[in-house]
């Protein structure tokens, strides 16, 4: 198990539609209690957000046995559990959870059926390109495709990365 940090304001915009919204943080003062949603409403919002993230993972064609995804809007934390086929799939599922707007942390409770080498993670900053990251990591900008391939299907184009996005960097 591990807790991985992400940038809350960056990522896929899965919440806010009619089917899923991130639950708000608890009200800080009694005066705000009248405007605060009920516990049932918060639970419903959190459940809808967890379901939206799970649907996003499935849309990326990533699978894990007994995949469970929950979201806590108060702490902006996703908890993901299940059994991924391999380490790469596990890491991609965690990144799908974390690269969602309103998610600040992912509690990784996934296990793997077949172990493998662990990738490093890189948070994209303004001005980054896959070539620039490859130059920093591998000493060769032309190795950018290695990073691109390691982040498919979440990345569909090597030119479409954004600040705050977290990428897998394979050995």
Entry summary:
The chain is built from 4 helices and 6 strands, in the order βαββαββααβ.
Notes on the structure:
It is a single chain. The chain is α+β, with helices and mostly antiparallel strands and 171 residues long. The protein is built from 4 helices and 6 strands. The chain has helices at 39-59, 87-98, 130-138, 144-150, and strands spanning 2-5, 64-72, 77-86, 105-114, 120-123, 166-169. Helix 3 crosses helix 4. The chain starts with a strand and ends with a strand.
Please give the order of strands in the largest beta sheet: 1-4-3-2
Kindly report the average pLDDT value.
88
Strand proportion, as a percent range, falls in 15-25%
Query: Low-confidence parts lasting 5 or more residues at pLDDT below 50?
Result: none
Report the radius of gyration as a whole number of Å: 17 Å
Order of helices and strands: EHEEHEEHHE
